[in-house]
Amino acid sequence: MAAADMTTEDYPMEIHEYLVAFNDSIGAVDEMLNKMMSVPRSELLQKIDPLEQAKLDLVSAYTLNSLFWVYLTTQGVNPKEHAVKGELERIRSYMNRIKEMTDRKKAARLDKGAAKRFIQHALCDPKEQKDTPAKKRSKSKHK
C-alpha cells in the first residue's frame, strides 16, 4: 500500500510521518533485495574473496531475520521471546568476529628490526661509540 493510498481517517494523524518513513524504508529494502536477487548468487560469489563472501552471507542472514522480527511484531508476537532473537545475536557475534579479523589486517605491522635500530640509536651515547666497522671503513678511505 503506497502512502498516497492511505487516508488520515484510517489511522491517528500523530503517526502519519512515522508511517510514511516506514513505507519509504520498506520501498528501499525492496529495491535493494531486487537488485541483489537480479544477479545469480554463484556469479556474485565468484567475483568476491572469501571474507567478502562471509560478510555477504552474514548481512543476508541478518536482513532476513530482521525482516522476520518485523513480521512477528506486526502479528502481535513479542520477538524478544522468540528464537529469532537468539539467531540475530548469533549472527551479530559472527559479524563482530569478521570485523575483528578485518581490523587486524588493517592494523599497522611493527618492523621489529627497524624498531630495534631506532631504539638503539636513540639510547646510545655518541661518546661511548668506539670505532664501529663502518667508521673504520670510512677512516681508511680518507687516509
TrEMBL record:
Keywords (A to Z) from UniProt: Cytoplasm, DNA-binding, Nucleus, RNA-binding, rRNA processing
One term of GO molecular function: RNA binding
A Pfam family that the UniProt record links to this protein: Sas10_Utp3
Keyword Transport tagged: no
Biased composition range(s): Basic and acidic residues: 124-134
Region (Disordered): 121-143
Cellular-component GO terms for this entry: cytoplasm; exosome (RNase complex); nucleolus
Biological process per Gene Ontology, one example term: maturation of 5.8S rRNA
The keyword Transmembrane helix appears for this protein: no
Domain of life, source organism: Eukaryota
Localization annotation: Cytoplasm; Nucleus, Nucleolus
PANTHER family: NUCLEAR NUCLEIC ACID-BINDING PROTEIN C1D, SUN-COR STEROID HORMONE RECEPTOR CO-REPRESSOR
Function: Plays a role in the recruitment of the exosome to pre-rRNA to mediate the 3'-5' end processing of the 5.8S rRNA.
Assembly notes: Monomer and homodimer.
Stated family: Belongs to the C1D family.
Name the record gives this protein: Nuclear nucleic acid-binding protein C1D
Organism: Eleutherodactylus coqui
